[in-house]
Amino acid sequence: ETGVTQSPTHLIKTRGQQVTLRCSSQSGHNTVSWYQQALGQGPQFIFQYYREEENGRGNFPPRFSGLQFPNYSSELNVNALELDDSALYLCASSPAPGANVLTFGAGSRLTVL
Amino acid sequence: KNEVEQSPQNLTAQEGEFITINCSYSVGISALHWLQQHPGGGIVSLFMLSSGKKKHGRLIATINIQEKHSSLHITASHPRDSAVYICAVSQGAQKLVFGQGTRLTINP
């Protein structure tokens, strides 16, 4: 399978709820990074997973957590949603950490009311 | 001050014009990326640079490591080039630090 697929494309949640966003990486890409992009801003690094282990984390609280699975899919989980969590969430996969091939998904747009 | 600064933030030009978007960074990097983001969110990687210059079709990217500066040029611009162009720098193997993006509009 080529390309990176994210789901859902859009969703609406209310404050305090939990959300799970999914990413299916490009085949053979064992590294996935997640980014949060607020409206009008550049993406911010949340964390990276490599071979199913967290391999670096940005300045995000522990209520942002992730999982990576052996089939190249991964999840971003956010607990206790806040209004400021409203953003586009992007995943990007690569064959290895720091590799010069980086493939982004189209993103999941989360709105928290 | 952001670690990665782009200029201009918005750029409107006529079809056919030569376009330059600039990126300055203040941190040590292992590589610099130029990315294109269309409405709706999808991001496409255009270039990854660690030195010198790269060309792909009408797009040219240059980097000056000593001056911590990179430029993206578009020759013979076309309305389909309209998008947000984002500069991002790699700090080690894990993290990309992004600029705010430059919104480019090419009018026919």
Can you put this structure into words, describing what you see?
- The complex is a heterodimer of chains A (113) and B (108).
- With 113 residues, chain A is mainly β.
- Chain A has strands spanning 5-7, 10-13, 19-24, 31-37, 44-50, 53-57, 64-68, 73-78, 87-94, 103-104, 108-112.
- Chain A is built from no helices and 11 strands.
- In chain A, strands 2, 4, 5, 6, 9, 10 and 11 form a 7-stranded mixed β-sheet that branches. A 4-stranded antiparallel β-sheet of chain A has the order 1-3-8-7, with no helix packed on it.
- The N and C termini of chain A lie far apart (35 Å).
- Chain B has 108 residues and is mainly beta.
- In chain B, the strands form 2 sheets. In chain B, strands 2, 4, 5, 9, 10 and 11 form a 6-stranded mixed β-sheet that branches.
- Chain A binds chain B through residues 33, 35, 37, 40-45, 48, 55-56, 58, 88, 90, 92, 96-98, 100-107, 109, and chain B through 4, 30-31, 33, 35, 40-45, 48, 86, 88, 90, 92-101.
Number of strands of chain A: 11
Range of helix content of chain B? under 10%
Number of helices of chain B: 0
Are there runs of chain B of 5+ residues with pLDDT below 50, and where?
A: none
Instruction: Supply the number of helical segments of chain A.
Output: 0
Alpha-carbon distance between the two ends of chain B: 36 Å
Q: Which pair of protein chains has the largest interface, and what are the residue counts?
A: A-B, 28 and 25 residues
Strand content of chain B: over 45%
Summed up:
The complex is a heterodimer of chains A (113) and B (108). By secondary structure, chain A is mostly beta strands.
Question: Key features?
Answer:
heterodimer; A: 113 residues; mainly beta; 7-stranded mixed beta sheet; 4-stranded antiparallel beta sheet; 11 strands; B: 108 residues; 6-stranded mixed beta sheet; 0% helix
